[in-house]
TrEMBL record:
<feature type="domain" description="FAD dependent oxidoreductase">
    <location>
        <begin position="10"/>
        <end position="365"/>
    </location>
</feature>
<dbReference type="InterPro" id="IPR028896">
    <property type="entry name" value="GcvT/YgfZ/DmdA"/>
</dbReference>
<dbReference type="Pfam" id="PF08669">
    <property type="entry name" value="GCV_T_C"/>
</dbReference>
<dbReference type="Pfam" id="PF01266">
    <property type="entry name" value="DAO"/>
</dbReference>
<dbReference type="InterPro" id="IPR032503">
    <property type="entry name" value="FAO_M"/>
</dbReference>
<dbReference type="InterPro" id="IPR036188">
    <property type="entry name" value="FAD/NAD-bd_sf"/>
</dbReference>
<dbReference type="Pfam" id="PF01571">
    <property type="entry name" value="GCV_T"/>
</dbReference>
<dbReference type="InterPro" id="IPR006222">
    <property type="entry name" value="GCVT_N"/>
</dbReference>
<feature type="domain" description="GCVT N-terminal">
    <location>
        <begin position="426"/>
        <end position="689"/>
    </location>
</feature>
<dbReference type="InterPro" id="IPR006076">
    <property type="entry name" value="FAD-dep_OxRdtase"/>
</dbReference>
<dbReference type="InterPro" id="IPR013977">
    <property type="entry name" value="GcvT_C"/>
</dbReference>
<dbReference type="InterPro" id="IPR029043">
    <property type="entry name" value="GcvT/YgfZ_C"/>
</dbReference>
<protein>
    <submittedName>
        <fullName>FAD-dependent oxidoreductase</fullName>
    </submittedName>
</protein>
<feature type="domain" description="Aminomethyltransferase C-terminal">
    <location>
        <begin position="705"/>
        <end position="786"/>
    </location>
</feature>
<feature type="domain" description="FAD dependent oxidoreductase central">
    <location>
        <begin position="368"/>
        <end position="423"/>
    </location>
</feature>
<comment type="similarity">
    <text>Belongs to the GcvT family.</text>
</comment>
<dbReference type="InterPro" id="IPR027266">
    <property type="entry name" value="TrmE/GcvT-like"/>
</dbReference>
Length: 794
């Protein structure tokens, strides 16, 4: 065994494909004082029994780009290292048994082409030509992605390790991590079975053990193991080496060729968690007992797709546990609790496809001190401390494993481990007939009305949402927005810190609200939020529900040594939005405050019935209105007082979404992100002319693409978001957010488009690809509803 160094610049825990990929890419970037610690042998945990499927397409542009890099890396790695990787670009074929699944696949194909991935919609006959040994008479069609492939997971790991070692990285096997030294909130070292290593950068790529490593350091790594199955058959006539990977998601099954037979696996809808009491040690190159009852739903459907399986012999049954996360996306990045502790884990049975790109992205984050691209879908900061609960994780994992092949309905909500976080008035909303969704663990009202079937067309819940929008536009509506993330920043240098962090000028008088962005060094958005000055040395910061951990971490790090303290007060306040042209009159009826004296952007304490609340005149729906910040203990009283007026219609977040898109308001994670600048977003007005804020150098550079409003010409078509935008048949962008607009009587959207058409003209019209059907649409830099904001300023 290689001797353990006393110090290393970087220590990586885990010698699976993820850990070796991080080591390889750190070395490629010039960081060679790196040690990889593996408690057993390389790839002995989860990697060795992975099926090795490499599919490029993911749900977002940035994640697809990351996986595409994996395929490029795997294609060249053997020539570079001399180690075989088993990489074969055999392509993949996904088939549909139902019209609904075919609609999903058509949407997938349109998105693939927009993200630069070659994809072709095929008929059942063409699918049969690509995969001759399957039954096709029950198929509706499929999608063929020729750039996909497969690889040998263990060989890939060895090749990455060899590439890293050639540049000076040490890979040490048979060393188990027993503790992490943390001092002053930062990593200082790691304890092992062979001694201590001093380090200030620790990378947790420990797979199923990553949660345990996180807890050693006091950091949240929310994942849980589940049993995962596949079988390897004897030779089957007609199965040839160049057979593509086949996915039959309606049957929960996948197939790939192996030595003339098939690997048959899948993702059953109700999974079987494992390791609730911890992962045993040692657990190297081990499998769990066969469970044919759990695998039955996959095998029965596999035989339906490939009838020859009914008589084929099974050479091996693999039951290899893997780690899954609460939302079926992996965990990447520096933990908010401990500086210098990075995570690359929880790959949800997609680690082989993800590891190449994820390893590079994490290495760049470590070297540069920040992500170099949009990694938000995988950012470990999308979860909070509460997500580390083992019971919650176990219950959620029963569902998330199956999400791989579940129908990707646009309005799908996760059903397990709910409810968790509830507004103080949850029971009142429930009594009023609310249909709830979930965001950051919060139960939030989507709309008031019964649950309805999923669809890719216009949903049955649309009339309920349309009525809520109409009530807000024509009278007034009450929204429970308690899930907003809420922070207090207080201290003598609070204003100075925010002037650096915020694009807008926050040196305003007490009682003023400022809408602002938080940027990275590249000028891209890390968040957008409101900042209210509540005292000379104190600010109330309100941001999106999903961004609590990330924004708190970003602001905290941005404070530096300034004398200011940031406190999360999210749970201390309920938030009620009273919005619409009648909102001023309604609030007057329950308060002695002069709501006529409230200019837009004003915030002050007011009486409301028997309670005292903070009333802030802002809006996210494009109407006259106020957000009321109510101490949690007064929430029920205030809600009852407001509803007691008899003048308010209760409304949900679907209505907010429709109205903010009508008004052209941007949302972080949709229109705004780490690669979108204020200039690209059309938000130059939020930037201080004097500069002096983080990212100012690049914030206003001429962008290559812009955020635009989109209005469909055909009132019958329905958009959900993610659709491709075309000009003269060529992709020029995609829809970021969409909704039916009852105000305009058609679908409206926001999207990203290239700045200029090929002829040098500003784009004014596009076609929208809706599951293969093209619809004409008008695009504009102005909002389709109230572009002058006259209603907001009423």
């Amino acid at each position: 065994m290689t001797s353990l160094p006393s110090r290393a610049q970087v220590v990586i825990i885990g010698g699976g494909i993820a850990g070796c990929s991080v080591a390889y890419h750190l070395a490629e970037l010039g960081w060679t004082d790196v040690v990889v610690l593996e408690q057993g042998r390389l790839s002995c945990g989860t990697t060795w029994h992975a099926a090795g499927l490499v599919g490029q397409l993911r749900g977002t542009e940035s994640m697809t780009r990351l996986i595409k890099y994996s395929t490029d890396l795997y294609a060249r790695l053997e020539a570079e290292t001399g180690f075989g990787t088993g990489w074969k670009q055999c392509g993949s074929l996904s088939v549909a048994r139902t019209p609904e699944r075919m609609t999903q696949l058509r949407r997938t194909a349109a998105g693939a082409r927009n993200h630069g991935v070659q994809a072709e919609v095929v008929s059942p006959r063409e699918a049969g030509e690509l995969w001759p040994v399957m039954r096709t008479d029950d198929l509706v069609g499929g999608v063929w992605l020729p750039g996909d492939g497969k690889a040998d997971p263990s060989d890939l790991t060895q090749a990455l390790a060899r590439g890293a070692q050639r540049r000076g990285v040490q890979v040490i096997e048979r060393v188990r991590v027993t503790g992490v030294t943390v001092r002053d909130g930062a990593v200082r070292g790691v304890d092992t079975s062979e001694g201590h290593i001093e380090t200030e950068v620790l990378v947790n790529c420990a797979g199923q053990w990553a949660k345990e490593i996180g807890r050693m350091a006091g950091a949240t790594v929310p994942l849980h193991s589940a049993e995962h199955y596949y079988v390897v058959t004897e030779r089957i006539p007609g199965v040839r080496p160049d057979l593509p990977v086949l996915r039959d998601p309606d049957g929960y099954a996948y197939f790939k060729e192996e030595v003339g037979g098939l690997v048959v696996g899948g993702f059953e809808p109700d999974a079987k968690p494992w390791g609730m009491d911890g992962i045993p040690h040692p657990f190297e190159f081990q499998l769990l007992d066969e469970d044919w009852d759990q695998f039955a739903i996959i095998m029965e459907n596999a035989i339906q797709r490939v009838p020859a399986l009914d008589s084929a012999g099974v050479r091996m049954f693999y039951n290899g546990p893997e780690s899954f996360t609460p939302d079926n996306m992996f965990l990447l990045g520096e933990t908010p609790e401990v500086r210098g502790l990075f995570v690359g884990a929880g790959f949800n049975s997609a680690g082989i496809a993800s590891a190449g790109g994820a390893g590079r992205a994490l290495a760049e984050w470590i070297v540069n001190g920040a992500p170099t691209g949009d990694l938000w879908p995988a950012d470990v900061r999308r979860f909070a401390r509460w997500a580390d609960n083992d019971t919650w994780l176990r219950d959620r994992v029963t569902e998330t494993l199956g999400l791989h092949y579940a129908m990707s309905w646009p309005d799908r909500e996760l059903r397990t481990a709910r409810p968790l976080r509830r507004s103080p008035v949850h029971h009142l909303l429930e009594r009023a007939g609310a249909c709830f969704g979930s965001k950051m663990g919060w139960e939030r009202v989507n709309y008031f009305g019964p649950a309805t079937p999923h669809t890719f067309g216009r949903p049955e819940w649309q009339p309920y949402v349309d009525a809520e929008v109409a009530a807000c536009r024509n009278a007034a509506a009450l929204f429970d927005q308690t899930a907003f993330s809420k922070f207090v920043l207080k201290g003598p240098e609070a204003m100075e810190a925010l002037q650096w962090l915020c694009t807008a000028d926050v040196d305003v008088e007490v009682g003023r609200v400022v809408y602002t962005g938080l940027l990275n060094d590249r000028g891209g958005y890390e968040s957008d939020l409101t900042v209210t000055r509540v005292a000379a040395d104190e600010y109330l910061i309100v941001t999106g529900s999903a961004q609590t951990t990330k924004d708190f971490d970003h602001i905290s790090k941005g404070l530096g040594d300034r004398r200011a303290v940031l406190v999360d007060v999210t749970g201390a306040y309920a938030v009620f939005g009273v919005m619409g042209p009648s909102s001023r009159a309604i609030l007057r009826s329950v308060s002695r405050a002069d709501f006529s004296a409230f200019d837009f952007g004003t915030s002050r304490l007011v009486d409301l019935g028997h309670a005292t609340v903070r009333a802030t005149r802002v809006t996210y729906v494009g109407e006259l209105g106020w957000e009321l910040y109510v101490p949690a203990e007064f929430a029920v009283t205030v809600h009852e007082t407001l509803m007691g007026t008899g003048e308010l219609t209760q409304a949900g977040h679907y209505a907010i979404e429709a109205m903010r898109i009508e008004k052209g308001y941007r949302a972080w994670g949709r229109e705004l992100g780490p690669e979108i600048t204020p200039a690209a977003a059309g938000l130059r007005f939020t930037c201080k002319k004097s500069g002096g804020f983080r990212g100012a150098r690049h914030a206003l550079e001429t962008p290559s693409r812009r955020v635009v409003s989109i209005v469909l010409d055909d009132p019958a078509a329905h958009l959900w978001g993610g659709e491709s935008l075309l000009s003269d048949g060529a992709p020029v962008g995609y829809v970021t957010s969409a909704a039916h607009s009852p105000t305009l009587g058609r679908s409206v959207a926001l999207g990203l488009v290239t700045e200029l058409s090929p002829e040098g003209r500003t784009l004014e019209k596009v076609e929208v690809d809706v599951a293969g059907d093209l619809y004409s649409a008008q695009i504009s830099l102005k909002a389709p509803y109230d572009p002058t904001s006259a209603r907001v300023k009423a």
